[in-house]
Amino acid sequence: MSSAEHHHEQSIWEKYIFSVDHKVIGMQYMFTGIAMALIGGFFVYVFRMQLAFPGMSVPGFGTVNPMEYNSLVTNHGSIMIFWVAMPVLIAAFGNFLIPLMIGCDDMVFPRLNRLSYQIFLVSAIILIISFFVQGGGFGGAWTSYPPLSAKSEYNLTPWGASLWLLAVALEFVAFLIGGINFITTLMNSRAPGMKMYDIPIVCWMIVIASILFMASVGPLIAGAVMLGFDQVYSIGFFDPGKGGDPVLWQHLFWFFGHPEVYVVLLPAMGIVAEVITTFARKKLFAYKTVLFTAAATGVLSFFVWAHHQFVSGIDPRMANVFTVTTLMISVPIAEMLFVYIATLYGGSIRFTTAMLFALAFLAEFLIGGVTGIYLGASGSDIFFHDTYFVLAHFHYTFVPIAIIATFAGLYYWFPKMSGRLMNETLGKIHFWMTIIPFNFIFIPLFILGASGQHRRIYNYQNFPDLAVPELQNLRVVATVALIFMILGQIPFFYNFIVSWKKGEKADANPWKAATLEWAAPSPPPHGNFAELPNCYRGPYEYSVPGRDLDYWPQNVK
Ligand SMILES: [Cu+2]
């Protein structure tokens, strides 16, 4: 883009609605993701109230019938993964950060970038519409297994199921388009002199995640088309009565679904790495190790999917293979956690709110990782499968990823986004009001799961064999903790909204960080840098104003 194009007067319309500026698109993704998180959060409030106090009239919703329960659970999962974790961690941070951190003025394809957001927005609107069609929102779980999702007597929400499928497919298109932009921009638009190993680790993580997404989503899109035909024309790709195979869907889904975990995990780990290096005042302990283990994790993540299918009738010999690959994948992730801990060692640590969230990510994600080992081993999985143990395990991975690491990133880059500082006291109140209730929600669910409580049951009073009725109190503890966690977000929203307008003004580099985005003004204007940075005099020889010279950036050799 020419500089003349950068500096013409823009109407509000051009500036906020149809902008091609990567920062505006990033923030559109962020605000849409936060809005969807409110919907997904409301859903979990409703169904957890039903689980703790079956049959009660839930304030703000009313009584929950079994169909509504299924629909709330399904859409809570779908929303949190596809419309919250992915848009915020990849699209919002990727768009906002990549051009700023590699020192260029915008993405390579700004209009494609705008198209990506617009398709994403349409997908979100279609999903919301699907809650109100005949039969209600899709209730066949976020994994959408046939026959619950195909045209059959078991699919009680046929309209909701088809709209859900359409919304997910469009969401994938949006992220494919966005991923193309991230990869080409990282490869082509770096500041002159910035070499591969000078790229900030979070940019690498987002790009590796985009590649993983692209490589894994193809089979699922094919599967989605087949499922669509099953829904509308009863072709029977997944129907044994017509010669199809329902387990085929499970393979196509989890071939995508497991790499998907790393699609959101890697950006989260990148965010945490940036926050930790800045607030420990140290370079990342082993930059190349993190980079290569992330890539290795990505490759390995394509060979673990059938650990979701140990009880689906797959060949037990295959279960052994997938047990081994699944246990192997914990090695690189553990290695990354060790690098982060080694980065803290000997550092001059500042306990800002962003840093607290980053540290909490390491501790909480560790619990998620360790409990995954029991599920990855086919012997123990046969017991734990479809219990609340699974549910508690993946919430100990996804909540650290999609909530805790996201907050670390939001608190850290807020001054760059808004030009103002957030209130740290309110931030710390928010931190504790999030972390403490979070553990009180899911530790009881581990206990319930290990005691045999089955997932996806609407009213445990009716199914004493699957419910451990004597542990009802634990369900109440989890629900009450959830309400505390939801209330704990009020200080965040207050802080975020008020600080955006009236917070203390931030200079270009309030944290004295060393990466390039802090060389741009806060907030950066359209075009980002007054003069585009160059790194010809060696890595990071450009000066980031206010950089704390006591420490060096992560990648100086
Ligand atoms: Cu998996």
Quick overview:
The protein has 557 residues and is mostly helical. Helices cover 65% and strands 0% of the residues. Copper (II) ion (CU) binds at residues 258, 304, 307-308.
Textual characterization of the structure:
By secondary structure, this protein is an all-alpha fold. The protein has one domain: Cytochrome C Oxidase, Chain A (Up-down Bundle), CATH 1.20.210.10. Helices cover 65% and strands 0% of the residues. It is built from 17 helices and no strands. The chain has helices at 3-7, 12-17, 22-52, 66-102, 110-130, 158-188, 201-233, 246-280, 287-300, 316-344, 353-376, 378-384, 388-418, 424-450, 464-467, 472-487, 490-502. α13 (388-418) packs antiparallel against α14 (424-450). The chain is globular, with a radius of gyration of 23 Å. Mean pLDDT is 91; it is low at 1-5, 537-541 and 550-557. The protein binds copper (II) ion (CU). Residues 258, 304, 307-308 line the site of copper (II) ion.
Average residue pLDDT: 91
Number of helices: 17
Strand-residue proportion: under 5%
The secondary-structure class comes to mainly alpha
Unreliable residue stretches:
1-5, 537-541, 550-557
- CATH arch. level architecture: Up-down Bundle
Helical residue percent band: 55-70%
Rg (C-alpha, Å): 23 Å
Q: What is the CATH H-level superfamily? A: Cytochrome c oxidase-like, subunit I domain
Query: Looking at the structure, what is the overall shape?
Result: globular
Describe the sheet with the most strands. none
Topology summary:
Blueprint: H1 3-7, H2 12-17, H3 22-52, H4 66-102, H5 110-130, H6 158-188, H7 201-233, H8 246-280, H9 287-300, H10 316-344, H11 353-376, H12 378-384, H13 388-418, H14 424-450, H15 464-467, H16 472-487, H17 490-502
